[in-house]
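Trying the structure run again after the queue cleared.
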Amino acid sequence: MSELIDNRAQRVRTLKGIIQRLHAGEAPDDVRSSLKELVCRTDYSEVMAMEQELIADGMPVEEIQSMCDLHSQVTREVLVQLAPPPLPPGHPVDTLRRENEALRDSMTRLQQAMNRVLETPDDGDASAPLLAWRQALNELQDVDKHYQRKEHLLFTCLERHGITGPSKVMWGKDDQIRELLKGLGAALRERDTAVAEWKLLAATMGAAAVSAVHEMIYKEEQILLPICLERFTADEWAEIWASSPRYGWCLVAPREGYKPVDLAPDRASAAGGVSLPTGTLTLEQLIAIFSTLPVDLTFVDASDRVAFFSEGPNRVFARSRAIIGRMVQNCHPPRSVDVVERILGDFRAGRQNVAEFWIQFMGRFVHIRYFAVRGGEGRYLGTLEVTQDAGPIRALEGERRLLEYGVPAAAGAQ
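Done. Tokens:
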């Protein structure tokens, strides 16, 4: 057994050394040749361990992110392609794989449409392939639901098992794909564009988007999902399954067949009450109050771990119970972690008490505020995030002094 462990550790070290040569500027073909000679065969866990070690050694996540497509390309020939284990229909991994297959189909249609544009004479009519291109791209926009479930559910559980670095790299790549698809969509909404410009768009941004999505599918199916299947418990898969609907499905719906294990009851469902300085509430009342508030609350404790969030019917940003106990830095895409760190640092040091932002999000005007929560003698206890759809409030005019209800309760419950 010790020999097997030593062999694995040696392969990871060798793999890391070769990848470092790639980062130092060595030609990918030379790196690929060395890899074939020295490593022979490796598996998904060793590739993930290699990236984790690079981060632990101080290599910035952004640098690994910029090179990770090359990582996968040079390691493909030595990566053991394991047959996927049989899973019941509807298992979270079954759904993710079926979504990837649907994404491949959408990309095939998108690539075919772009090829037709590229074949159109500069003075010709590209309206038909452009329509097919727009339709295929519209389907691909659904990938955000797939990525959100991966980022907020799979990555959360990976962190419990001590795997953090590679998920940060993958999240950064997800964001790049989102930006590519968003930019491509904006360009395709233009109407007065010459055929030559459509061709350039297809050959550049279009080709980059197709390549990036294909690369991510490869990384998910050959590295991410196998390591998740190896590490996650039945309880964790049940938790992922229960939390998935709040993020939605990408192109296909889950099949019937998977029977998750029963999760232990939440502490919040236990009987009893909570005594506060200004009164006492039962747990049922307390839960109902948090669920009724017209704002979304998330509390991060003094150690930067998510400790609580409210569950209202119209949350602005989706939350799952899987994030409880997760480091808040890992709940944000890599590009915004610096801002999160700055806010928490300023709050902890007592330099600031409030930070606020307002953004346009999914047709809503969203007001986001962060408050430093302090106990006796100003001791920092954590940070409270308060998020609200402020659009209806901004639209108010004049006064309302007489009782007038909005949507009837019966209608609103439908």
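The radius of gyration is 25 Å. Worth checking whether this holds up in the mutant runs.
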